[in-house]
Specification:
The complex is a heterodimer of chains A (116) and B (113). Chain A is mostly beta strands and 116 residues long. Chain A has no helices and 12 strands. Classes of the chains: A mainly beta (116), B mainly beta (113).
């Protein structure tokens, strides 16, 4: 079974600064995908970024980047130049790619509050 | 194009009643997923469909829960004889294939009184 750990229940960040959200995972499968989702107060889950276990480069999408450290089994999300609209809950998720297990396993989430 | 839609957005029901939650995936997406998010909890996987087939129903919490998908499109999650512990936000997601990122709908907030 896969396990995702997000140890930061809540974080505050000043507008325009960068923030790093921690995520560690545990799996014995060599082929897996890591995802980050944003859930604003409206409730909808918004896909942000994806990293495959065999990807050589760290994934980037605009102001989002994923700091993937495979040996440490960590996949931290970095949000650069924070904006007020970044205030939301952020979830790290994983799914195994080499099996028929297609579900996403989610961490408990980290609440980010951006201060003006 | 249109995203994943879910209806109703909110549902209040009395304990013991049956409820149906609907999900309309992104057009052309073959895979559809149901998750549940309880207050203060993370997301719990319930079931997924590839086309109209649900190969894995092990995530359904009890036999009161069932789901179907017809025509490879709309899916319905049915909860029979609702209990208070069923109160949660039920999220539906779809993807263009089983290996791709999942796009979520706005969810249905179910409250069982």
């Amino acid at each position: 079974a896969q396990k995702i750990t997000q140890t930061q229940p809540g974080m505050f960040v000043q507008e325009k600064e960068a923030v790093t959200l921690d995520c560690t995972y545990d799996t014995s499968d060599p082929s897996y995908g890591l995802f980050w989702y944003k859930q604003p107060s409206s409730g909808e889950m918004i896909f942000l970024i994806y990293q495959g276990s065999y990807d050589q480069q760290n994934a980037t999408e605009g102001r989002y980047s994923l700091n993937f450290q495979k040996a440490r089994k960590s996949a931290n999300l970095v949000i650069s130049a924070s904006q007020l609209g970044d205030s939301a809950m952020y979830f790290c998720a994983m799914r195994v790619l080499s099996s028929n297990d297609y579900k996403l396993s989610f961490g408990a989430g980290t609440t980010v509050t951006v201060r003006a | 194009g249109a995203g994943v839609s879910q209806s109703p957005s909110n549902k209040v029901t009395e304990k013991g009643k049956d409820v149906e939650l609907r999900c309309d995936p992104i057009s052309g997406h073959t895979a559809l997923y149901w998750y549940r998010q309880s207050l203060g909890q993370g997301l719990e996987f319930l079931i997924y469909f590839q086309g109209n087939s649900a190969p894995d129903k092990s995530g359904l919490p009890s036999d009161r829960f069932s789901a179907e998908r017809t025509g490879g499109s709309v899916s319905t999650l049915t909860i029979q004889r609702t209990q208070q512990e069923d109160s949660a936000v039920y999220l539906c997601a779809s993807s263009s294939g089983l290996i791709y990122e999942q796009y979520f709908g706005p969810g249905t907030r179910l409250t069982v009184t």
